[in-house]
Amino acid sequence: MSIIIIILAFSIWSCQAVLENCQRPTLENGFFVPHLDIYEHGVNIYYGCNTGLKPALETWWGKITCRDGHWSHIPQCIDNTHCIVPHVPNTQTEDLRLKTSYAHNEELSFKCKSDFKFENGKSRARCENGKWTLPKCTRKPEFCAPPPRVVNGMIIQPYQDAFKNGDKLDYVCAEGYKLQGTRYTICRNGQWSNSPTCVEKSPCSRKPAVRNARPADELKTSYNHGDTVQFVCGKGYRFEGTDSAQCEDGEWNPPKCIDASLCPAPRVANARAAENLASSYSSGSYVSFQCDAGYQFVGAYYARCVNGNWDLPRQPAVDLAQFYANGRSVRFECDSGYEFEGTDTAWCVEGIWRLPECKRRGPHGGSVRPDPDVVPMPGGNCDTQPLIENGDVTDLPGGNELKAQCYKFYKLTGPETIRCVNGKWTELPVCKPPCKLDRTKIHTSHPDEYLQEGELKRFYCGQLWKIDISCIKGEAVYGECKYHYG
């Protein structure tokens, strides 16, 4: 029985860990309570510091714990004017190596976490007589106040009531002024970044000079931005473009006088050059052209330079849509004694008629060609189709009704359908002519720009400027060229 008890006791002892005691810690300029040589595992002891000193903790007394032969931390006494490492919410320290304590007037740098910023821009903590003067990180605001006003400038974005972080606003200056510095401002952390300024464009302090030309009037000693000076080319020369020099922000933009026998690059409406154009051509040079889709030349297809002037194609390019549009059709009746061989309809296919054929009832035959002005009607009491100036008509099912339509850009006014009643056509519509716009007043890539009667349209008249133009009784009415930012 005694042998079994000894074995069991040995087994229990071998399963328990042996936890070591702690030696008395060392503390300069301080004392412990209780004061022993050996402290068992788990025992807490308290310590204080001599006069003028304090524990390197946030309390005026310290506590350490024995844990398996080691103390929870090394006790230390520091000067009352020193500070231990502080805790600043929503920050991290920028110093790579932190000290146990910091002397009076020493500083420590901090960095705010993302989405936070320092109040008053202060990012450093200062130890002052044992207490820290700490920075403070607050959450960044989400919105900015209204943007800064720029004298003689304006914002080009549409108006808005609120501006959040990241919003960017662009500025432009009034006529006669230019941007200096950045062109925009950005809302960052509730504050606007540096905004631009608009300064007056510089005058031209020197007189303009143009080679092979003289000024039309006596020159002044100075000119403001935007002023122009007219010139006269010398004998045997002519202007290439404008005849005036313009002051542009302190520099002259002069005209150019070229040999009068040279021709500038030619232009033909509704056509393009067959090869790349040069800036000028000598007398006797030729330039070939190709029509745009839907147009064809009537006559020559080339231009010839003759002593500074172009001999352009004798007749302008003709819009095929002004006769019969591609895909349109016209029905016919054969003359007495003839009958159709196949269809009775002629079709316009890319400017060429595909015609029906009338053959005599018998051994002889014949063919017909369409007459755009007078086309016999199949049945009904009206002998011929009516004529509509600047328009045409097509048959509708039944034989006694026609559909009227106008040529390109012309506007149909009146009934679209015409009926044959008692041998006479009902009221005919009118095709009102369009208005051709002055290309010097608008920015457009088209060689010609038209508006239909009664139409109102807005065009660019500058990079950020627009103009409203309407067509009234065949005349283009131009509004004011105004600045638009929306």
Task: Explain this structure.
The protein is mainly β and 486 residues long. It folds into eight domains: 22-79, Complement Module, domain 1, CATH 2.10.70.10; 83-139, Ribbon (Complement Module, domain 1); 143-200, Ribbon (Complement Module, domain 1); 213-259, Complement Module, domain 1 (Ribbon), CATH 2.10.70.10; 262-317, Complement Module, domain 1; 328-358, no CATH class; 391-432, no CATH class; 435-483, no CATH class. The chain contains one helix and 55 strands. The strands form 20 sheets. A four-stranded antiparallel beta sheet has the order 2-4-6-7, with no helix packed on it. It has a four-stranded antiparallel beta sheet with strand order 10-12-14-15, with no helix packed on it. A hairpin with a 2-residue loop joins strand 41 (345-349) and strand 42 (352-354). Residues 1-14 and 364-380 have low confidence and may be disordered.
Which stretches are poorly predicted, pLDDT < 50 over at least 5 residues?
1-14, 364-380
Q: Please give the alpha-carbon distance between the first and last residues.
A: 105 Å
- The residue fraction in helices comes out at under 10%
> Based on DSSP secondary structure assignment, what is the total number of beta strands?
55
CATH superfamily placement of the largest domain: Complement Module, domain 1
Mean pLDDT: 81
* Second CATH tier, the architecture of the largest domain: Ribbon
Q: What is the approximate shape?
A: elongated
| Secondary structure category | mainly beta
User: How would you classify the quaternary structure?
Assistant: single chain
The major sheet is characterized as: 4 strands, antiparallel
* CATH topology-level fold name of the largest domain: Complement Module, domain 1
Q: What's the number of helices?
A: 1
